[in-house]
Amino acid sequence: MVSRLRALGGLHALEDFAATKGEYVRPVGTSYRGYDIHQMPPNNQGLTALIMLNVLSGFSLGALEPNGAERFHLEIEAGRLAYQDRDNFIGDQNHVHVPVEQLLSRSHADRLRAEIDPARAMTHLPRLELQPSDTVYISVVDRDRNAVSFINSTFGSFGSGVVGPSTGVVLQNRGSSFRLAADHPNRIAPGKRPMHTIMPGMVTAKGRAIMPFGVMGGGYQPFGHVHLLTNIIDFGMDPQEALDAPRVFYRQDA
Questions:
Q1: Between the CA of residue 166 and those of 3, 4, 169, what are the distances in Å?
Q2: pLDDT-based confidence at 218, cuts 50/70/90?
Q3: What does the DSSP assignment read for 170-203?
Q4: Which domain holds residue 70?
Q5: 144 lies in some domain
Q6: How many domains, the chain?
Q7: Is 48 a catalytic residue?
Q8: Catalytic one of 20, 123, 135, 204
Q9: Closest by CA position to 172, among listed 164, 161, 181, 188
Q10: Where does the pLDDT of residue 128 fall: very low under 50, low under 70, confident under 90, or very high at 90 and above?
Q11: Section 156-180 average pLDDT
Q12: Residue 76: is it exposed, middle or buried by C-beta count within 10 angstroms (0-12/13-18/19+)?
């Protein structure tokens, strides 16, 4: 794989692959109406969904129509604010400080919520660049209620388009998510991981797994997580109803 990448002009070395290892990490989480919601920590974008839930916890979503404009408006506005935080702060925590506690604080949620007018959209919008994605999500629960929430993706269609000639492994292209600005937490640097979009979720209550969950769709995933959870928790839908329900997503260029 390395020889193939270098033949294409890449700067990869065997040492880069040898130094790569999986990590056991502590999830980040928040509480939402009596449930504990868990996400992967940065460099993952799961923090975005948690910020959205913190903002939405101050609204009585369950009193609104499940597919009504008022509900979708609140979720969209919360998403716009949370995605702005994602784009401004999330990077590889092995290289930069990500203010996770501050971003998940109730005071931060209160400040964001104060920006939302239930009657009209905000005029100053965060910039969101979407990338095509090829993602697979799997959730498994056994009879002992051991639960696994698993997601995998090559990012772009066919990833980088590069295949190791002797392995058949398709190489992903997550490096395209790096920023070039020198002062950005997600700036490109040697040995650093980019902010990425795949985010398996887990709901627990009283220390027990209630539901592993996830969606596919690149940058859409925080919106998808929040929409699924609010359908179930606020509107009392069963999982199939929650998945089948109409969805919304804000795109500035749409």
A1: 11, 10, 8
A2: confident
A3: BPP-GGGG-B--TT-TTB--TTPPPPB----EEE
A4: 27-130+180-244
A5: no
A6: 1
A7: no
A8: 135
A9: 161
A10: very low
A11: 86
A12: middle
